[in-house]
Every structure is written in structure tokens, then in C-alpha cells.
What does this fold into?
Amino acid sequence: MDDPDGPTSSPEAPDANRADDDEDDSNGYITRRRLLLAAAGGVGLLGGGGFYVAQSLSGDFGGYEAPATQPMVTTRGRLDAADPTERVGSWDFDEADEVVLYVHGLNADAESARDQAYTARLGLAAAGATAEADGPPVVGYSWTSNVDWGPAKQNADANAAPLADWVAAWADDDGRPLHLFAHSLGARVTGAALRRLADRGQTDALASVSLFGGAIPNDSVGTDGRYGSAIAAVDAPVYNFHSRNDRVLGWVYRLSDGTRAVGHGGLAGSANAPAGYEDVDVTDLVADHYSYIEPEEGCLPRAVGRIGIE
It folds into this structure.
């Protein structure tokens, strides 16, 4: 869940074909204004806690600006098209041995989505993920998330099929190992896409899946949860990098959705971990919701060792 107080735009109108089949967020939308009022009311009772929340909500991803060549896959304004994904930027990385696909979270416009993907590449380079000075290629997956919370969750579910289709096509047409990174609400896009891949029997399309500050319920990744069976089915490790310093998840997400986020404290204590799933506590490395992928600031050095990016 990214900054709930950033710039807004008109949402892509959700329709019945876009929502995932067993969860409907069409009722009880929570706008940013209501979300922030709820947060302010809740933390007001806790005195100094309000300062930390306000500080967290004003964070950014380090201020890195991507070049126009940053490769992106976008579904913005295209979900009703015959082919909802479009490639933009430069895709001149034929010499790379493996590729990372980065799925952003809430409140990212097209420019922010591009900048975040570029930041992830810089973070991987700083973490020593490859001998290349610029790090391994990172392709950004850009979707309409710069809307209010309820519509954003519907748009996340609506991107399940396009993301699954693109990943499967990459496996068939290119074949190089593809590591999927998902930040914040991007974890919902990813979980829904994994379900699609599992339903189709395309469980070998990814080399790894990593959630960073995942804004999904902490029981949804358990064996009996919404995404548990898909996580168990995927033929790749699934890592959940979580931080208790992430106050956007610890405060705002909990107030808005009435549950704990997997990106804050990991899998719910009452749930069982599916095969292939691993919680990785990065509280000692990650100071806020925005720094998971930042060079020198985030947890990518620890992530690289587990993921096996070379």
C-alpha cells in the first residue's frame, strides 16, 4: 500500500469482468480522505504515534528518475483491449541471462511506476546481484493504481489475467528466468496472477516470486488462504520480505481493511505456510514502506542471496 495522500486521478471503471471471483470490493469503498481521517483518529489516542504515521505517509522511493528507455509493460487504459499489455521503453537486453519483473503498488502513475522499476534495478546493482554495472534488467509492470483504495483493489484483481498471460508468453517465447518482484498492493496483483497460472497448469513460468511490504491479509498466503494453493503450486520459491517498521501497513492498512498485512509481520500465526513459501524478516534493514528496494537503504542485499539472481 503506497502513499494514500498522493495525487489522484479518475479510476478505471470496475466492471463484473474485472473482479476476482471470490472477493468483491465493490461495496464500502474507502477513499484516501476517509482512510487518513481514520488513521488520524486512531493515532490521536496514542499520542506520539501520530507523528510516526505522518512521517511514514510522506515517504518516497529515493527520488531516482528513470530514463525514457526504462522497459515497461503497461495495461493502463487497455484492460478492455484484445491485447491489454503494451511494451514501452527500450527492450535491448538480449545479452542478459535473467530478467526481473517489478509490479508496483498503490498510487503510482505511469511516471512513478517507471521510476520505481528503475530504482529496483539500481538497488539490485548496489546489492551485487550481477557483474553488470547497471544491474540485471528490470521490466516494470504498470497498472492503474493511482485511484482510491477500493477501486485500486478491483484494478489489482483485474490485472490478474493480463499479468499471467504476459508471464506465460515470456516463458514460451523468451524462456530466460523471470523473477517477479511485487511491492505493496502489487502483491495482490501477483497473488491473483499466480492463481490464474495455477488454474492453467502453467506453474513453471517463474524463477522466483518476492513480495516486499505486501498489502494483502496475513492469512491470505496460508495453505487455506486466498493465495495459498497457488503459492504451493508454483514451481518456484515465494519469499515474503516484511518489516515491522512499515507503519503504512502497521497503521493505515490495518485501519482501512481491519486486518494485518503480510508485509508487516509475516504469515498469520494461526495459518500454515504452503510449500515453497518463506517469510523473511527485514525489520533490521527496512525503515519504512518505501525503502524495500532502494539502493543502500532496503533489503535487496538479503533478498538477492535467497532469490539466487546472478
